Prior knowledge:
Layout: E1 2-6, H1 13-22, E2 27-30, E3 40-45, E4 61-64, H2 70-73, E5 83-84, H3 89-107, H4 110-118, E6 132-136, H5 140-151, E7 155-160, E8 170-173, H6 178-183, E9 187-190, H7 204-208, E10 214-218, H8 227-235, E11 239-244, E12 264-266, H9 276-291
Parallel strand pairs: 1-2, 1-3, 3-4, 4-5, 6-7, 6-9, 7-8, 9-10, 10-11, 11-12
Helix pairs in contact: 1-9, 3-5
Amino acid sequence: MSIALVIPDRKLEQLQQKLQQQLPGVDIQIWPDIHQPEAVDFAVVWRQPAQSLATFSNLKALQSFGAGVDSILCDSSLPDVPLARIVDPDLTKSMLNYLHGVLLHYQLRFDQFALQQQTQQWKARSPRKIQQLCVLGLGELGKAAVMYFQQLGFQLCGWSATAKQIAGVHCYAGEAEFAQAVAEADLVICLLPLTAHTENLLNDQRLSQFKPGAILVNVARGAIVDDLALLQHLDNGQLSAACLDVFRTEPLPAEHPFWQHKAIKLTPHISAVTNADTAVLQIAENYQRVQAGLPMLNLVDKQRGY
Ligand code: NAP
Ligand code: GLV
């Protein structure tokens, strides 16, 4: 029995060592150098190439190396075994730090002062009024975000697929309540998974439902936003700014207009990177559960897509 690490374009020796410390005696192989594919019964995956798991004829379970699983589920040759995701307080903390930084950036008008600096303009302005926040997606990260910002004194509302109750937060659910969820928000944070239902969800029609002058922060997946519609709404002033950590194509192609847009701040998908030190503990636990015939922790509903 062995574990395969199928995470392309990444140096995996350290992850292999850390996992080995948790699971002494277990054979851990790094794809594509799999010497005995039939011995692999557990694979840790992230953006695996199609067919890369096909030779693992005795595979029992898959473990995503991140929170999102869209890049795993899009593989049409994905073996029909349970899939678990990472749920890690350390990942959540990174996301909250990032979001707090972004919020302060806009509240203190650092975006506008950076533009002023380019033309040596000395013009003082009072902080932007950011009072109401809306979080799209109230799962592991979205729920943590609403609770975090609520504690800081912001007014919060959230939107999810099924109805939720979170004390002090206006929770909306389903397509019919989207417009209400975003209508009064000064800043909207997208923390939805990318699924067939959320692809291009933030299109022309839905961006028109945002409060005029709102700011969009997308830390979920790029394909949830219609790029052209976002550019149009930034150009016509419906949105005043967007902070994007994720993109339809990553790395963002050199010719993409997002790079040069004055109202867009972008970061290279770093808002919450999986911490190998903490992730290996869950990976090892899930591996042991599979060996003991127990269900893994943090299972993904593959039909639903998250
Ligand atoms: P999660 O626990 O799976 O929660 C997803 C939430 O989205 C749930 O509240 C779900 O509603 C809601 N949702 C799903 N489909 C919906 C729809 N069609 N309409 C309305 N709401 C919908 O996800 P998470 O752990 O919070 O993470 C969210 C996403 O963040 C991940 O999928 C990943 O893509 C992204 N992410 C990005 C980074 C980064 O570094 N940029 C890091 C980690 C994660 P219900 O609760 O009603 O089902
Ligand atoms: C990162 O994007 C993740 O989904 O964990």
